[in-house]
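Could you please consider the sequence and fold appended to this message?
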Amino acid sequence: MTAGSPQPRVRGGITLPTGSEVASYATYLEAQKAVDHLSDEGFPVQLVSIVGTDLRSVERVTGRLTYARVALAGAASGLWFGLFLGLLLTLFVGGGGLNLWLAAVLIGAGSGMLFGVISYALTGGRRDFSSVNAILASRYSVICADQEAGRARQLLQGLEGVRPLQREPGPL
Protein backbone atom coordinates (compact mmCIF):
# COMPACT_ATOMS: atom_id res chain seq x y z
CA MET A 1 0.00 0.00 0.00
CA THR A 2 1.22 3.47 -0.75
CA ALA A 3 1.08 6.39 1.65
CA GLY A 4 -2.32 8.01 1.58
CA SER A 5 -4.13 4.99 0.09
CA PRO A 6 -7.07 3.74 2.13
CA GLN A 7 -6.55 0.73 4.37
CA PRO A 8 -8.83 -2.21 3.52
CA ARG A 9 -11.47 -2.89 6.16
CA VAL A 10 -11.43 -6.35 7.72
CA ARG A 11 -14.57 -8.40 8.50
CA GLY A 12 -14.23 -11.93 9.85
CA GLY A 13 -10.74 -12.39 8.40
CA ILE A 14 -11.75 -11.24 4.89
CA THR A 15 -10.62 -7.82 3.70
CA LEU A 16 -12.66 -5.67 1.38
CA PRO A 17 -11.03 -5.80 -2.05
CA THR A 18 -9.06 -2.93 -3.47
CA GLY A 19 -8.65 -2.24 -7.14
CA SER A 20 -10.83 -1.13 -10.01
CA GLU A 21 -14.28 -2.20 -11.07
CA VAL A 22 -13.89 -3.90 -14.45
CA ALA A 23 -17.55 -4.84 -14.95
CA SER A 24 -20.87 -4.77 -13.12
CA TYR A 25 -23.73 -7.24 -13.53
CA ALA A 26 -27.37 -7.50 -12.50
CA THR A 27 -27.05 -11.10 -11.25
CA TYR A 28 -24.44 -13.09 -9.38
CA LEU A 29 -24.58 -15.78 -12.07
CA GLU A 30 -23.51 -13.26 -14.73
CA ALA A 31 -20.62 -12.03 -12.57
CA GLN A 32 -19.61 -15.65 -11.94
CA LYS A 33 -19.67 -16.36 -15.70
CA ALA A 34 -17.45 -13.32 -16.27
CA VAL A 35 -14.86 -14.54 -13.75
CA ASP A 36 -15.08 -18.05 -15.23
CA HIS A 37 -14.38 -16.53 -18.66
CA LEU A 38 -11.33 -14.74 -17.26
CA SER A 39 -10.13 -18.04 -15.81
CA ASP A 40 -10.65 -19.82 -19.14
CA GLU A 41 -8.49 -17.15 -20.78
CA GLY A 42 -5.65 -17.81 -18.35
CA PHE A 43 -6.17 -14.58 -16.42
CA PRO A 44 -4.81 -14.62 -12.82
CA VAL A 45 -8.23 -14.81 -11.15
CA GLN A 46 -6.73 -14.59 -7.65
CA LEU A 47 -6.60 -10.84 -8.41
CA VAL A 48 -10.39 -10.72 -8.93
CA SER A 49 -13.29 -10.38 -6.48
CA ILE A 50 -17.06 -10.29 -6.89
CA VAL A 51 -18.69 -7.69 -4.66
CA GLY A 52 -22.45 -7.49 -4.20
CA THR A 53 -23.74 -4.03 -3.36
CA ASP A 54 -27.04 -2.62 -2.10
CA LEU A 55 -27.80 -5.79 -0.14
CA ARG A 56 -31.37 -6.64 0.78
CA SER A 57 -32.85 -9.36 2.90
CA VAL A 58 -35.69 -11.06 1.03
CA GLU A 59 -38.13 -13.47 2.65
CA ARG A 60 -40.37 -15.32 0.21
CA VAL A 61 -43.47 -16.78 1.79
CA THR A 62 -43.98 -20.31 0.49
CA GLY A 63 -47.24 -21.26 2.17
CA ARG A 64 -49.53 -21.27 5.16
CA LEU A 65 -48.68 -23.55 8.08
CA THR A 66 -51.32 -25.81 9.56
CA TYR A 67 -51.04 -28.68 12.02
CA ALA A 68 -51.51 -31.12 9.12
CA ARG A 69 -48.66 -29.58 7.05
CA VAL A 70 -46.35 -29.42 10.07
CA ALA A 71 -47.13 -33.05 10.98
CA LEU A 72 -46.51 -34.19 7.40
CA ALA A 73 -43.22 -32.28 7.12
CA GLY A 74 -42.09 -33.63 10.51
CA ALA A 75 -42.99 -37.18 9.51
CA ALA A 76 -41.06 -36.83 6.23
CA SER A 77 -37.90 -35.54 7.91
CA GLY A 78 -38.22 -38.17 10.64
CA LEU A 79 -38.64 -40.84 7.99
CA TRP A 80 -35.29 -39.89 6.47
CA PHE A 81 -33.68 -39.97 9.89
CA GLY A 82 -35.23 -43.39 10.49
CA LEU A 83 -33.83 -44.69 7.19
CA PHE A 84 -30.39 -43.43 8.18
CA LEU A 85 -30.69 -44.97 11.65
CA GLY A 86 -31.85 -48.27 10.12
CA LEU A 87 -28.80 -48.27 7.84
CA LEU A 88 -26.45 -47.64 10.77
CA LEU A 89 -28.06 -50.35 12.86
CA THR A 90 -27.88 -52.85 9.99
CA LEU A 91 -24.22 -52.07 9.33
CA PHE A 92 -23.02 -52.14 12.94
CA VAL A 93 -25.44 -54.45 14.74
CA GLY A 94 -26.27 -56.76 11.86
CA GLY A 95 -29.24 -59.07 11.57
CA GLY A 96 -32.75 -57.74 12.04
CA GLY A 97 -33.34 -57.36 8.31
CA LEU A 98 -36.58 -55.78 7.17
CA ASN A 99 -38.13 -55.65 10.65
CA LEU A 100 -35.27 -53.46 11.92
CA TRP A 101 -35.60 -51.09 8.96
CA LEU A 102 -39.38 -50.86 9.32
CA ALA A 103 -39.15 -50.17 13.06
CA ALA A 104 -36.49 -47.48 12.55
CA VAL A 105 -38.54 -45.79 9.81
CA LEU A 106 -41.77 -45.85 11.84
CA ILE A 107 -40.07 -44.58 15.00
CA GLY A 108 -38.29 -41.86 13.02
CA ALA A 109 -41.49 -40.72 11.25
CA GLY A 110 -43.49 -40.75 14.47
CA SER A 111 -40.84 -38.84 16.39
CA GLY A 112 -40.47 -36.27 13.61
CA MET A 113 -44.23 -35.78 13.49
CA LEU A 114 -44.46 -35.39 17.27
CA PHE A 115 -41.57 -32.92 17.52
CA GLY A 116 -42.90 -30.91 14.56
CA VAL A 117 -46.40 -30.58 16.04
CA ILE A 118 -45.06 -29.71 19.51
CA SER A 119 -42.68 -27.03 18.20
CA TYR A 120 -45.46 -25.53 16.04
CA ALA A 121 -47.85 -25.49 19.00
CA LEU A 122 -45.24 -23.67 21.11
CA THR A 123 -45.15 -20.76 18.64
CA GLY A 124 -48.67 -19.87 19.74
CA GLY A 125 -49.75 -18.87 16.23
CA ARG A 126 -47.13 -16.12 15.95
CA ARG A 127 -45.76 -17.54 12.73
CA ASP A 128 -48.38 -19.39 10.70
CA PHE A 129 -46.45 -19.45 7.44
CA SER A 130 -43.37 -21.05 5.93
CA SER A 131 -40.77 -19.06 4.05
CA VAL A 132 -37.32 -19.03 2.48
CA ASN A 133 -34.79 -16.29 3.31
CA ALA A 134 -32.07 -14.93 1.06
CA ILE A 135 -29.74 -11.96 0.97
CA LEU A 136 -29.63 -10.46 -2.53
CA ALA A 137 -27.66 -7.62 -4.06
CA SER A 138 -28.97 -5.17 -6.63
CA ARG A 139 -25.71 -5.43 -8.57
CA TYR A 140 -22.50 -7.47 -8.57
CA SER A 141 -19.22 -5.75 -9.37
CA VAL A 142 -16.17 -7.58 -10.65
CA ILE A 143 -13.18 -5.90 -9.01
CA CYS A 144 -9.62 -6.47 -10.19
CA ALA A 145 -6.20 -5.40 -8.92
CA ASP A 146 -5.21 -2.17 -10.65
CA GLN A 147 -2.16 -3.63 -12.43
CA GLU A 148 -4.35 -6.10 -14.41
CA ALA A 149 -7.66 -4.16 -14.59
CA GLY A 150 -7.18 -2.99 -18.19
CA ARG A 151 -6.51 -6.52 -19.41
CA ALA A 152 -9.55 -7.85 -17.52
CA ARG A 153 -11.81 -5.19 -19.09
CA GLN A 154 -10.48 -6.11 -22.51
CA LEU A 155 -11.14 -9.83 -22.00
CA LEU A 156 -14.68 -9.18 -20.77
CA GLN A 157 -15.73 -6.93 -23.67
CA GLY A 158 -18.24 -8.67 -25.91
CA LEU A 159 -18.61 -11.67 -23.61
CA GLU A 160 -21.61 -13.72 -24.82
CA GLY A 161 -24.45 -14.44 -22.42
CA VAL A 162 -23.74 -11.70 -19.90
CA ARG A 163 -24.78 -8.06 -20.06
CA PRO A 164 -22.77 -5.67 -17.92
CA LEU A 165 -24.68 -2.84 -16.26
CA GLN A 166 -23.95 0.63 -17.62
CA ARG A 167 -22.83 3.10 -14.99
CA GLU A 168 -20.36 5.86 -14.46
CA PRO A 169 -16.97 4.64 -13.22
CA GLY A 170 -16.16 5.52 -9.65
CA PRO A 171 -15.46 4.12 -6.21
CA LEU A 172 -17.55 1.33 -4.74
Remarks:
- The domain at 19-60+132-156 is CATH 3.30.70 (Alpha-Beta Plaits).
- The radius of gyration is 26 Å.
- The longest helix spans residues 67-92.
